[in-house]
């Protein structure tokens, strides 16, 4: 067994990463904690003793600054296995200041156990163990008075001690040609945020080995070095590390370090001892320095010649534009290609040894929501042992999220055991941009630009598909038509901007109160249509009534806190229905709702309630009708649905009554009192019947310059105006009034006589 003096000299890390066995200077509150760790410390010492064959090494008391005794062969072998010929540097440091040498050994053992726990690759473990043993070698240049001082250092003294980092690099560069070891020591004293350093290196750009050494070094000093102030307990030291996370230390590595201390290290300490004294003795060619009796290191050319396949594979991977990442079965990263660096902005040094988690790359789905660790695609691929491909977004090198295609491929051994996964990161930014452009183009074609609901063309297309799908599945579906009441008065009173706000309000309310499978469309002007999937007419009418009530109870600021109302017509798909018949029936229901007083829901069709006070319209029969005063054929350059909307404005402003509607034929009744001051004194007002029959046709036209040629919709309205009562007196006067009605009707419909319209549609002769 090793002696107590030896224990005081080595003072290595165990499960808590060690505390000095000489605890007489500590407060009473630390005695119980120290006693509980004696067994753990002795566990590592016993493992070292079992692996060694030489005699016990002498001890060096950290409390005695006297010259140390000569070291024996076993202690030399422990250091030589890790440092080769550079063990002389460690021996010089031990003769200079035994306390610093013991601290360096504890840090090295702690980093070795940490690397073993996180399953880092052998090369990284070699670098971190060698660098941590020599990270304080520059203190050889510091005066003894400062190294042996037991009280807190002044600012000037601290500045002198800090020069040991530069001195250490100068010493190591004379005998070490391994860049990773030199960089690990160079940046071991650097803050994680890079503040206070001459260069801008910081954060993930710092080597992984440096960030690990900084954490273990700080923890050991807080718990073992009196020159840094009062010694801290394990919990106090961990709290200080957490407080420095993000500024002094890597926050992710601090969390890993805390996780390490919470696990059982008895097995790890034996494995660390066996690695240091046995395994690495057979792998001396991997060390940054040769041993005293080693043969000459094989040259790089010899290594490449021995395994040309690995050389070709590495160059192939590094030349790939896509990112290539290798992880083990625990998702620990051990290969990070140049393509991954270009795509993510994370260097291979910063990524090595970390776990592949969504947080590492700030991974989000295509909707911008961050992916949780349990939903990590690499974890899912490893768990299912199946390839997985997914479109994601990660934080790129420019600080903005970029689209990628992640392809996780599990890797199995010849025996079928899971060894890890290959992760491919393919840049999908160009594909995502093209998809976004296609989506934007689709929205432009199918959506109304103002309300963002479906437009008329999309409604017509979906209505046919809707009916076909429900007829094949034998499911009910319904159509709701809605029209804002007195919309023209809103524009006239509050302006067109208020009218637009009213239309947008109704559209948003319809989208909010309809189900996800329904389609809301702006049919034209202030009229909307709602296709209700798998819905009976009763359910659709109930939903329309809820929308009607909600709209009528909501004040609108653009209308001076006034409330909107809307009328609704509802029809259900019936056997033999076509898109035209279903639309016609729901539109007729909407016209009835308008005629019966507005702000109500009317149903037409199967199971629709019939009004009890409906009267027969005997005046529709031609045998009782008065002869027409005027018959005209008008043409307007708008679709038929827009023409009907404009006719509604005529009806509202002239206080006309809708007598009957059937298919595309409308019969109105209005009084001559609505024609202004035309009536002569003593004349009694007369009532006129206006019959309109609409039809739509498409005509090829172009402008006067021969441009914008194409096929355009045109509505033809055949108008007949006759008096309500059959009287022959003053027929000329009645005809004059009928002409005024026709003139007003033309103005509302923006129509002209068919002959005139045809002349205007032809390009002017000689126009170029």
What is the total number of structural domains? 4
Mean pLDDT: 75
How many runs of DSSP E, i.e. beta strands? Answer: 18
Helical segment count = 28
> What kind of assembly state do the chains in view correspond to?
single chain
pLDDT < 50 runs, ≥5 residues: 1-27, 29-45, 47-75, 279-287, 290-306, 610-623, 756-768
* Shape-level CATH architecture of the largest domain: Orthogonal Bundle
Tell me about the largest β-sheet. Answer: 6 strands, antiparallel
CATH topology-level name of the largest domain:
Hypothetical protein af1432
Output the CATH homologous superfamily of the largest domain. Answer: Hypothetical protein af1432
Shape: elongated
**Strands ordered across the widest β-sheet:** 14-15-16-17-13-18
In CATH, what is the class of the largest domain?
Mainly Alpha
How much β-strand is present in the residues? 15-25%
Radius of gyration: 44 Å
Helix content: 40-55%
Structural class: alpha+beta
Distance between the termini: 111 Å
């Amino acid at each position: 067994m090793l002696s107590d003096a030896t224990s005081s000299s080595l003072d290595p890390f165990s499960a808590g990463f060690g505390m000095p066995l000489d605890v007489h200077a500590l407060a009473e509150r630390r005695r119980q904690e120290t006693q509980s760790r004696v067994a753990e410390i002795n566990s590592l010492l016993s493992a070292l003793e079992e692996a060694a064959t030489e005699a016990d090494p002498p001890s060096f008391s950290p409390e005695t600054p006297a010259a140390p005794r000569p070291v024996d062969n076993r202690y030399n072998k422990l250091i030589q296995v890790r440092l080769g010929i550079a063990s002389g540097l460690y021996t010089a440091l031990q003769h200079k200041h035994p306390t610093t040498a013991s601290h360096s050994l504890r840090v090295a053992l702690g980093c070795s156990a940490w690397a073993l726990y996180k399953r880092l690759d052998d090369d990284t473990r070699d670098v971190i163990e060698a660098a941590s043993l020599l990270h304080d070698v520059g203190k050889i240049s510091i005066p003894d008075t400062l190294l042996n001082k037991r009280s807190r250092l002044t600012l000037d003294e601290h500045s002198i001690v800090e020069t040991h980092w530069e001195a250490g690099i100068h010493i190591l560069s004379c005998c070490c040609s391994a860049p990773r070891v030199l960089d690990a020591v160079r940046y071991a004293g650097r803050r994680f945020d890079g503040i206070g350093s001459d260069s801008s290196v910081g954060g993930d750009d710092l080597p992984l080995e440096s960030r690990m050494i900084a954490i273990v070094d700080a923890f050991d000093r807080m718990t073992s070095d009196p020159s840094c102030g009062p010694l801290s307990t394990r919990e106090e030291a961990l709290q200080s590390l957490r407080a420095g996370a993000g500024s002094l230390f890597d926050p992710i590595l601090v969390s890993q370090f805390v996780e390490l201390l919470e696990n059982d290290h008895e097995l790890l300490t034996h494995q660390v001892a066996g690695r240091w004294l046995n395994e690495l003795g057979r792998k001396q060619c991997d060390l940054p320095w040769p041993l005293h009796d080693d043969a000459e290191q094989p040259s790089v050319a010899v290594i490449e010649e021995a395994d040309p396949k690995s050389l070709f594979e590495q160059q192939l991977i590094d030349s790939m534009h896509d990112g290539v990442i290798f992880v083990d079965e625990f998702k620990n990263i051990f290969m990070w290609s140049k393509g991954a660096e270009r795509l993510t902005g994370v260097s291979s040094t910063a990524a090595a040894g970390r776990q592949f988690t969504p947080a590492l790359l700030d991974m989000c789905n295509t909707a911008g929501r961050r992916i949780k660790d349990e939903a990590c695609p690499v974890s899912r691929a490893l768990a299912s042992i199946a390839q997985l491909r997914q479109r994601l977004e990660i934080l790129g090198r420019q600080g903005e999220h970029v689209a990628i295609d992640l392809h996780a491929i599990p890797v199995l051994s010849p025996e079928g055991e899971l060894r890890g996964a290959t992760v491919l990161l393919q840049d999908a930014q160009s594909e995502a941009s093209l998809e976004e452009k296609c989506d934007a183009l689709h929205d432009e074609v199918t959506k109304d630009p103002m309300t963002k609901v479906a437009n008329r063309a999309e409604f017509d297309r979906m209505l046919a598909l809707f009916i076909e799908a429900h007829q094949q599945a034998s499911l009910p579906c319904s159509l709701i038509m809605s029209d804002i009441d007195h919309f023209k008065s809103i524009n006239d009173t509050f302006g067109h901007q208020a009218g637009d706000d009213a239309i947008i309000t109704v559209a948003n309310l319809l989208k909010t109160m309809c189900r996800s499978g329904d389609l809301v469309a702006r049919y034209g002007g202030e009229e909307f249509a709602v296709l209700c999937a798998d819905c009976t007419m009763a359910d659709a009418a109930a939903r329309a009534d809820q929308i009607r009530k909600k709209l009528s109870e909501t004040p609108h600021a653009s209308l001076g806190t006034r409330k909107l109302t809307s009328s609704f017509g509802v029809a259900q798909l019936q056997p033999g229905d076509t898109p035209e018949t279903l639309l016609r029936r729901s539109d007729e229901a909407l016209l009835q709702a308008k005629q019966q007083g507005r702000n109500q829901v009317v149903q037409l069709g199967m199971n629709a309630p019939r009004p009890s006070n409906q009267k027969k319209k005997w005046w529709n029969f031609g045998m009782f009708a008065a002869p027409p005063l005027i018959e005209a054929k008008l043409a307007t350059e708008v679709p038929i649905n827009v023409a009907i909307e404009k006719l509604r404005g005529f009806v509202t402003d002239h206080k006309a009554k809708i007598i009957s509607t059937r298919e595309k034929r409308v019969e109105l009744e209005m009084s001559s009192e609505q024609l202004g001051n035309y009536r002569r004194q003593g004349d009694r007002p007369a009532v006129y019947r206006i019959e309109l029959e609409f039809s739509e046709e498409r005509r090829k036209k172009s402008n006067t310059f021969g441009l914008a040629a194409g096929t355009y919709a045109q509505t033809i309205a055949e108008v007949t105006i006759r008096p309500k009562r059959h009287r022959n007196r003053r027929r000329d006067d009645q005809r004059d009034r009928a002409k005024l009605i026709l003139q007003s009707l033309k103005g509302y419909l923006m129509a002209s006589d068919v002959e005139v319209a045809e002349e205007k549609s032809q390009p002017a002769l000689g126009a170029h």
